[in-house]
Amino acid sequence: MKDDSKSTPATETPAAGRRRFIGSAALAGLTLGVAACADKKSEGGAAAPAAGGSAAASGHAADAIHLKPGELDTYYGLWSGGHTGDMRVLGLPSGREITRIPCFVPDALVGWGITNESKAVMGTKPDGSLRYTVADTHHTHASYKDGNYDGRYAWINDKINARVARIRLDYFVCDKITDLPNVQGFHGIFPDKRDPVDEKINYTTRVFCGGEFAIPLPNAGIEDASKYRSLFTCVDAESMDVRWQVLIDGNCDLVATSYDGKLAATNQYNTEMGAHYEDMMSAERDACLFFNVARIEAAVKAGKFKTIGDSKVPVVDGTRESNKDPKTALTAYVSVPKNPHGVNASPDGKYFICAGKLSPTATVIELSKVLDWFDGKQEKLDGAIVAEVELGLGPLHTAFDGRGNAYTTLFLDSQVVKWNVDKAIAFHKGDKTVKYVVDRLDLHYQPGHLNATQSETMAADGKYLAVGCKFSKDRFLPVGPLHPENEQFIDISGEKMVLLADHPVRGEPHDFIIFKRDLVKPKQVYTLDEFPNAVKDPKESGVFRKGNKVEVRLTSQAPAFSLREFKLKKGDIVTLTLTNLDKVEDLTHGFAIPKYNVNFIVNPQETASVTFVADKPGVFWCYCTHFCHALHLEMRTRMIVEA
Ligand code: K7E
Ligand code: CUA
Ligand code: CA
Hints:
This protein is mainly β. It has seven helices and 39 strands. It has a domain at about 530-640: Sandwich (Immunoglobulin-like).
C-alpha cells in the first residue's frame, strides 16, 4: 500500500519547505533519520511502512525474478563486498549470490591468503606473513570495448590501504593487486573506455583511481591541513603498473570516464580543504574535477612532472592555481553544489551527472562543452553546466535506462527518483512548465548506490534497477544489533518503477555493475601449463630434500592423493605443492593439515602450494576438505614429522 500522506506531485520535490542547502544544524537531523527508525516517526520518508508500487501491485513483473529450479539468470552482477574485501557475484534478476571472489582479505573457502600463489598477489612482509588482512571495497567496474563490457577484467578498490585489485573474468579470480603510492583513502575507480588519441585502441587500457584523503606529500606529519593534497592515479590496465598521478585540490569521491576516452572526472566534496566536517561543508559549492587525459600524458612525456618521496611515479600538477589557463590546463574544476556525491556518465556519451548530496539537486555537465573550454572555444567553464535541477533530499548516485531517463537515489528521502535528462535541461533553460520528474519510489531505507542493467555502457537496456539500501530496519527477521543491508530490485521497463524484491546482504557492499550474461565467457577448467610449478604426472610426486629445505610434490585425483604418506623432520622448511589432475569441472579437492593452519583448494587442473615450518612432531592426517566423491572422507594422506 502506498502511504499517500508522503506522496508528492511528480514535479515537486518532496521537501517543499526544505529547499535550502543543508547546513550544520540540519546535519544533526541527517543522522536522526537513521536513529529514529525504531519508532517509525522519522521525517523525510525514512521509515515508510510499505513500498509505493509494490510487487503485489504487479504480480507479473514480480514473477520474472522467481526462477524455477535449473533456470539461469540473464544478468551477472558484480558487487563490491565492503569489509570482506571480496567481489560478490550475483545472478539477476533472481538476486542469488553465486560466488565471492576473494581479493584483499583472506578467504577460508579457497585458501586465499594461505597458498603461496594468493599471498604473492596479496603481498607479504619479509617474514612471509600477509601485509594486510583488512580492506574496505567500495567500487567495482569492468573493462570496456566499443562502449560495452568486454569480459576481460574487473577492478575493485580498497579504500583503507589504497590498493586496486584486478579480477580476471575468465576464471573469476583476482590476479593482481597494486598499491597506489602516496594515497590515503583510495575511493572512486573507473576504467577508461577507449584511448583519447589512438583510434585503434577502442578498449580499456587505463584504470583511474581517486584519492580521497588529502595528506602531506610526502607524508611527513605536517599539521596545517591546508597544505595537504591528494592524488588522482592512472594504473595500466594490463601490467597494473602505476603510470602517472595528478596532484589535486579537494577530496575525490567517485570517478567517471567519457566514452571518447578524452575525459575522466571525480566529484570533490572538500574543495575547502578542511580537516573537520564543518569546514568541509562550509562552502556552498565544490567541484566536479575533469582530467584532460591526452594533455596529462603529453605533459608526462615532456618531462613536466615531479616525483614524491620514494615513488618513481611521475606526478603532474593539477591544482586549481596552476590550471587557470584553458590553453595549458590539465584539469578543470567545474563548480557544483554542495559536497557532491557521485559522478555518473550517461549512456549516450553526452553528460556527466553529479548529485548534490547536501544540495537537493543534480548537476548535468555537457562533456563537449568541457572539451570546448580546454580548446579555448567555451569561455566560461560554468557554461558546461546545462542543468541543475531539484530532485529531493540527499541525492547520491545516478543510473540510466538508455531511454533518456536518469534514476537518482535520495538518501534522506529514502527514495529513488526517475527523471528525464532532456526535460531537466529544458527546465533549466527557462521553460518552467516542463515536468522533468517522471516517478518516485519509496525505498527501504536510505539508499546509496544504485545501478541499472547495463547502465554504465552504451548498451543500457533499462530493464532492472538494483539499489543498495544502507539500512533494512524492519524488512528482515531481527538478528541482533547489526541488521543486514537491503538490496532492492526494481523493474524499470515501464513508465512507473515497480519494486520486485528485497534481498538481505551482509554488510556492507557499496557499488555494483549489472551486465548481460553472454558478455563473459567463464572457463571451468584450468590448463596445467598456467602453473610453472605444476606436478604434471603422479610419477613426479615425492619428497625432495636440500638440507632442511624440503619440497613435497603430489597430485590429487578423486578419491586419492598421489602420496599415501610423506615424512619430514622437525624444523624442516616445507613447500608442499599440489596439482589437481582431475579434469571435470567443479571436481575440486581441498587439502587441510591439522594443527598447521593449512587449508586450501585446488580446482581441476590447478596447482597451489603452501610453505610452512614442520615445527610439531607427530602424525597428521592431511585430508580433502572439499566434497568430491563418494570416497571423499577416505581421501587422505599422512604427514609424519619425526622429532
Ligand atoms: Cu560509492 Cu562515495 Cu564509497 Cu556513494 S560512495 S554510497
Ligand atoms: Cu577430494 Cu574430497
Ligand atoms: Ca564542501
